Amino acid sequence: MYDALAPMTTDALDRGVAWLARAGLRPTRQRQTLAALLVGDGCDRHVTAESLFAATLETGEKVSLATVYNTLRAFCDVGLMQEVTVDGARSYFDTRIDDHPHFFWEDTAELTDAPSEGLNIVSLPKAPDGTEVSRVDVVIRLRRIS
């Protein structure tokens, strides 16, 4: 249902520690485990806190769901990931941090990268006084037809 996470290997752990170091984050054991699962194979992926929590349990690492949420938010705060909100109750966390659109597959609740070709945002409304646009998220919802 979600992007498969990286296998837990020594290389994956090393890649995860390097990823944390780039952002200046202290490599706690739990952060190392989460980072290795997220970026250990060098692939970008989209996860929910729940899917990452489940994968973490499979490694034998003791971590709470609250810790997973807090760690994902910390990763976002330092620019390692971005949060993509699909609706008010569902957030995905993306290891690819450049500006890009997403497809949300309604039947599987999966978030995937969408091609940027053909997407043209010509203009945006003027931001209210004292604010600026920090980012524009494009989530294209898909429904399969029979």
UniProtKB/TrEMBL annotation:
Keyword Iron annotated: yes
Cellular component aspect of the GO annotation: cytoplasm
Protein location: Cytoplasm
Gene Ontology biological-process entries: negative regulation of DNA-templated transcription; regulation of secondary metabolite biosynthetic process
One of the record's GO molecular function terms: zinc ion binding
Keywords associated with the record: Cytoplasm, DNA-binding, Iron, Metal-binding, Repressor, Transcription, Transcription regulation, Zinc
InterPro entries the UniProt entry points to: FUR (IPR002481), WH-like_DNA-bd_sf (IPR036388), WH_DNA-bd_sf (IPR036390)
Alphabetized Pfam families for the sequence: FUR (PF01475)
Stated family: Belongs to the Fur family.
Subunit composition and interactions: Homodimer.
Identification of the protein by name: Ferric uptake regulation protein
Annotated organism of origin: Gemmobacter megaterium
Gene: fur
